[in-house]
Amino acid sequence: MFRFVPHRLFDKFRGMIDSLPPKAVLKAASLQRGMLNADLAMGRTPPSEDTDLILAFCRFIGGATHGALVMPPSISMEHLAFYQKTVERLAAAGELPGKAKTDFETVNHDLLFCISG
């Protein structure tokens, strides 16, 4: 795994997740969540909207494997398309239950409505 560079945090995370087969995404996200939390705690990575959203997404997909809804009620548009695509990809591959896609869309309904409308 890699350490995050704050100004390119989301781009690196997106590139890593996109490059992995669905079967490897949940484990990689869990590992990255742990490393990012450690980096934040040790001051190696400053807190930012990117760190908050990446951690929230990792919690969401981790919780979704157990049927839990843990996504916060708002997400930036910059992150939304990637996270939605990833949830759909994982659900289609059977790595997440189909309910995860519905939960993600429900939590982010207003933003999704603005994009499609």
Descriptive overview:
The protein is mainly α and 117 residues long. It has one domain. Helices cover 70% and strands 0% of the residues. It is built from 6 helices and no strands. It is globular. The C terminus is likely disordered.
Helices and strands in order, then pairings?
Layout: H1 9-19, H2 22-42, H3 49-64, H4 77-92, H5 98-107, H6 109-116
Number of strands: 0
Domains counted in the coordinates: how many? 1
User: How much of the polypeptide forms β-strand, as a percent range?
Assistant: under 5%
Low-confidence stretches: 113-117
In N-to-C order, the SSE pattern is HHHHHH
* Helix content class: over 70%
- Kindly name the structural category: mainly alpha
Rg calculated over all Cα atoms: 14 Å
Helix count equals 6
Distinctive features:
0% strand; mainly alpha; 117 residues
Please provide a brief summary of the model.
The protein is mainly alpha-helical.
